[in-house]
Amino acid sequence: MLIVRVANFVHATSGGLRTALRELGRGYQAAGHEAVLILPGAEAGEEQTPQGRVITVPGPAVPGLGGYRVLLNRGAVKTVLRRLGPDRIEVHDRSTLRWLGSWARESGVPSMMVSHESLDGLLRLFGPGGPVAPWAADRLNARTAAAFGTVVCTTEWAQREFLRVGAAPVRVPLGVDLGRFSPAGRDAGLRTGLAGTASVMLLHCGRLSAEKEPGVSLETLAALRADGLDAVLVVAGDGPLRAELSAEAERRRLPVRFLGHVSDPRGLLATADVVLAPGPIETFGLSALEALASGTPAVVRAGSALPEVVGPAGVAATPDGFAAAVRDLLARPAAQRRAAARTQAECFPWSNAVNGFLAVHAGVAALPGGSAAR
Known about the structure:
Layout lengths: L1 E6 L8 H15 L3 E8 L3 E5 L2 E7 L15 H11 L3 E5 L6 H9 L3 E5 L3 H8 L5 H16 L2 E4 L2 H8 L6 E2 L16 H8 L4 E6 L9 H12 L4 E6 L5 H10 L4 E5 L5 H6 L2 E4 L8 H8 L4 E4 L4 H5 L3 E4 L4 H9 L3 H12 L4 H17 L8
Parallel strand pairs: 1-2, 1-5, 2-4, 5-6, 6-7, 7-8, 9-10, 9-12, 10-11, 12-13, 13-14
Antiparallel strand pairs: 3-4
């Protein structure tokens, strides 16, 4: 089976989506299928990789998003698709690539859209807000559900906005590389270099952009230190808010270490005492799951999908409650909280995700009209 995946907003330093695409592609290839990924790039290109062929189609960079590009030339994308002749289309962008659902239907190709973001949340943060936001989200989600053979959501939380409009999305959780991310990566030397003699090392790992609300992590550090806890915060990630956050930390004399993009975060994730994940509209949270696999518990945003993922290995809190949640985790014996984190992560191997996605692809083909078995 030739599975062609198409995605926007992916580049060399992007996080969860890039990881998911890579692991799913590898899994498809290992299962005996052919995986092809179409992405926007600065210029046209094609290369063979462990996740299958990766084809880049020229697409413009979006201003203010740190180098992310989008596929705007529909004709060029259609030309590539006609040349490939896919058996399945898997789309990883619910907005700018919605048109691919119609193309797939007209071409007789079963289609799947994977929802990686909350439209409700995005409209609440960057759109009209108020009662208009859910109304607008419902209209757009109904169009998306109608455009594709099936919609895949990675958590029950992410499913809700589609269920609200009468759609029947399939839930398939993503995964974590349990061999790559391990408690064995804990590094005393790394900790000393980053945190010195501080008793607690907090870690914020993710893009520094408005929808992730990284300022909550700075406020958490400030509250803990005001309460007498000798804590430092390490920030792994880059984005448009980095300069503002760095200036704020300096002004408030908070011990924050900004590392920028970290290509291999395994040591950091295993060495931190607690990972902070304050993003309010996360639909899964791969970074938090990688922390759990590394033996580090997480404080996550209540109202996002992350409480569903971290389970008893973490604590969910509102922004004002993050400091208390950190205290809660630290009050648990270190060996106990680290073992619980790893045990929770072991519920999410990538093999389960790959098998789930392939089962949906099989279901898409099994029913008339491209509707997936549910």
